[in-house]
Write a structure and sequence with these properties.
With 193 residues, the protein is of the alpha/beta class. It is built from six helices and six strands, in the order βααββαβαβαβα. The protein has one domain: 3-Layer(aba) Sandwich (Rossmann fold). The protein has helices at residues 30-35, 37-49, 111-117, 130-143, 160-171, 184-192; strands spanning 9-14, 54-59, 96-100, 122-128, 147-156, 179-182. Helix 4 (130-143) links the parallel strand 4 and strand 5 (147-156). The longest helix is centred in the C-terminal third of the chain and has 14 residues, at 130-143. It is globular, with a radius of gyration of 16 Å.
Length: 193
């Protein structure tokens, strides 16, 4: 029997920033990221209808950050246009824009308190990349005592098989039903039932 979600949700959209969509950068994630814009916009509109919070959490790195001492090149630098939410997403002024200094939307951002103030109990998480920032946010949601949904059709990774493998790892897990993999349609169906 399918378990129903009886929670107050928030939609967390991760790293849909201009640097990741800049054609001149020729990033392999960009085509996959473009494909999730429409499903994310639909989910955004549905969350707004119910007055459920929408959070855009975006990388806001510093050029000298530790993470750039490896193979990763500086990008999404705090205060630059490249770290802003991509124009194609339906972001409103009353949405919460949350720049983040590392991969998880919970890391040194105050997100936990912001969600508790709004009595949120479930974080639905999408964006890029499924196996990095989306997944770390999902895991940190659980670590901060929120239920979490990894949004299958609203997340992307490169290559596609990495996205699929990440989802498969968590489709059946020991944290179920606290951690679930769902499509946006499945999530809305459960939330509206």
């Amino acid at each position: 029997m399918k378990e129903k979600i009886q929670d107050t949700p928030a939609l967390l959209i991760i790293d849909m920033v201009k640097d990741n969509f800049d054609a001149s950068r020729n990033l392999p994630i960009t085509p996959s990221a473009r494909k999730i814009i429409d499903p994310l916009n639909y989910l955004i509109s549905e969350f707004r209808k119910h007055k459920w919070p929408v959070v855009f959490s975006t990388d806001a790195f510093q050029r000298e950050d530790f993470i750039f001492k490896g193979r990763m090149h500086p990008h999404s630098l705090a205060g630059t246009q490249g770290a802003e939410v991509v124009d194609e997403l339906n972001k409103h002024d009353d949405d919460f824009w949350l720049p983040k200094p590392r991969f998880s939307a919970f890391f040194n951002t105050g997100l936990e308190d912001w969600l508790h103030e709004r009595e949120v109990t479930l974080c639905a998480v999408g964006g890029i990349s499924t196996h990095f920032c989306v997944l770390t946010t999902v895991m940190d949601a659980i670590c901060h005592d929120f239920k979490a949904v990894l949004l299958e059709d609203c997340s992307a990774a490169f290559p596609q098989r990495v996205h699929e493998q990440t989802l498969e790892c968590y489709r059946t897990n020991s944290l179920y039903p606290l951690l679930r993999v769902m499509t946006s349609t499945e999530l809305l169906s459960d939330l509206n039932s």
